[in-house]
Amino acid sequence: xxxxxxxxxxxxxxxxxxxxxxxxxxxxxxxxxxxxxxxxxxxxxxxxxxxxxxxxxxxxxxxxxxxxxxxxxxxxxxxxxxxxxxxxxxxxxxxxxxxxxxxxxxxxxxxxxxxxxxxxxxxxxxxxxxxxxxxxxxxxxxxxxxxxxxxxxxxxxxxxxxxxxxxxxxxxxxxxxxxxxxxxxxxxxxxxxxxxxxxxxxxxxxxxxxxxxxxxxxxxxxxxxxxxxxxxxxxxxxxxxxxxxxxxxxxxxxxxxxxxxxxxxxxxxxxxxxxxxxxxxxxxxxxxxxxxxxxxxxxxxxxxxxxxxxxxxxxxxxxxxxxxxxxxxxxxxxxxxxxxxxxxxxxxxxxxxxxxxxxxxxxxxxxxxxxxxxxxxxxxxxxxxxxxxxxxx
Length: 393
What we know:
By secondary structure, the protein is mainly beta. It is 0% helix and 39% strand.
């Protein structure tokens, strides 16, 4: 197939302006391949093909046509390599969301809610905007007993259609696509497990069950199974959409979401993307720490489970936090004095709570000793970041 000409001695294009500024609603002009984004800023990727190198804290997002919100990949905080992107100029963006609200976990689905009268109000949310989804979550009814399939060597793959988007959905707000997987026994489908029960389905969809391409029996003969779903969440909160991330929060602990409407008892825990901006040791310790630096890392900083057990955030399928790496200086005769740590990587966390600090010592060069980790204070917040956008052939 045709491809751009390239070869030894042919370099990449220089940064260039791609659109005249006088065109209405055109993507931004660029004449540099180094771009800094402050916390809360987003940048549409101009039309064309690009090599993109994100900074430590930026994420690459696409505009999800089902939910109507910007979607972040679960491995976004680990994608430090060069990314090849083909953009139409409007549906892909780079975002620095550190310090900003990013989502909400339903901690109580409540009951008797009606989509038309249900709303979410926010306190301390940086101007963020939210839309609830009522009902339309799926439950597993059964494997249709007349056809549980036969001949499977490995479990088949289940494709579940997405709910209609807002402009075609009776609820007016769209929905969240459900996902899940099958189990097999003696070559037949024995059950199904949701990894996301979805939200906003007006009727239960018919899933497509296809043999796994790696199934050793695929050329021998497999009889496809049939699954049946049902709507099991009428009147319950099933989804929370952050339609605008707003500005960085001055205090994530004061960030709250409140559900209003005809129903009762629904509660949501708001979550924000955060990074460690400072790490201070208030009380040092004298021990055999040798002469090498100590490392502070972190545990925790993940969203709560919520009342929907198969919550992608809780299952680490929608967001994987990255622990921080912070250096501490060992002074004198192997002692740790009160100090500010050197932040090599502040990490990325999707929660309104700070992670816990853990001190690691180089056991080959240091003796025994302990430091009260409660004496290490982590300040959570936001940071500026720099990315590289190089026009690609």
